[in-house]
Amino acid sequence: TSLLIATNNPGKRIEIQAILADLPLTLVLPAEAGLNLEVEETGGSYQENAVLKALAFSRASGLPSLADDSGLEVEALGGEPGVRSARYAPIPNATDADRRAYLLERLRSHPIPDGMPGWPARFRCVVALALPTGEIYLTEGTCPGYIITQERGQHGFGYDPIFYLPEYDQTMAELPPEVKNRISHRARALQAARPLLQRLLGS
Ligand code: ITT
């Protein structure tokens, strides 16, 4: 059974491939399916955007497609950047480093709560599985942590270097990838999707 990984983000792609590696699925990348598809994320929620992406890729490829819409939610900022995490920072062609700098800039006027290692935050991930029949399944995962000002670590992508996990005393970018891929929001959403994928394999 083939499953299209409906993302253009290489960081996500590598993690999804690793997390699903033990399933007897042939994971197909957009480029391998001859697809160069930019889906405009017009939805106001992770769920809506994940469905938009999974359906668009499934229609274009004729394959079952799995999309991930995810983001970082910082309590002091009322849950920002949230669904806008990939587009945060008001600069054209912003990089992940620009977005981290912009987030820290926004946090400057908010004191770190007493006794905490940083600003409380969580990563959130919604996974949508779209079948060629048009059926859609959604799962979700979250991972709590703290935003810190000092970047640490080289692994991962996005906000990982400033996302601190007290139980490991490491940032998400310092954790070995196999550990991130056990505990992350993405890992949890994909674990929750396993029964759906098993059913796909059985059919
Ligand atoms: P696709 O839509 O092609 O999948 P994208 O990067 O545009 O790629 P999203 O709209 O879901 O995807 O944005 C997710 C953003 O949230 C991502 O670009 C990062 O900035 C952040 N993010 C999500 N998961 C993360 C993780 O595991 N570590 C660090 N940052 C993450």
Automatic annotation (TrEMBL):
Its EC number is 3.6.1.66. Its cofactor is Mg(2+). Binds 1 Mg(2+) ion per subunit. GO terms for molecular function: dITP diphosphatase activity; ITP diphosphatase activity; metal ion binding; nucleotide binding; ribonucleoside triphosphate phosphatase activity; XTP diphosphatase activity. It is an enzyme of class 3 (hydrolase). It comes from the Bacteria. Substrate binds at T7, N8, N9, P10, G11, K12, S70, F157, G158, Y159, D160, K180, H185, R186. Homodimer. Belongs to the HAM1 NTPase family. Pyrophosphatase that catalyzes the hydrolysis of nucleoside triphosphates to their monophosphate derivatives, with a high preference for the non-canonical purine nucleotides XTP (xanthosine triphosphate), dITP (deoxyinosine triphosphate) and ITP. Seems to function as a house-cleaning enzyme that removes non-canonical purine nucleotides from the nucleotide pool, thus preventing their incorporation into DNA/RNA and avoiding chromosomal lesions. This is dITP/XTP pyrophosphatase.
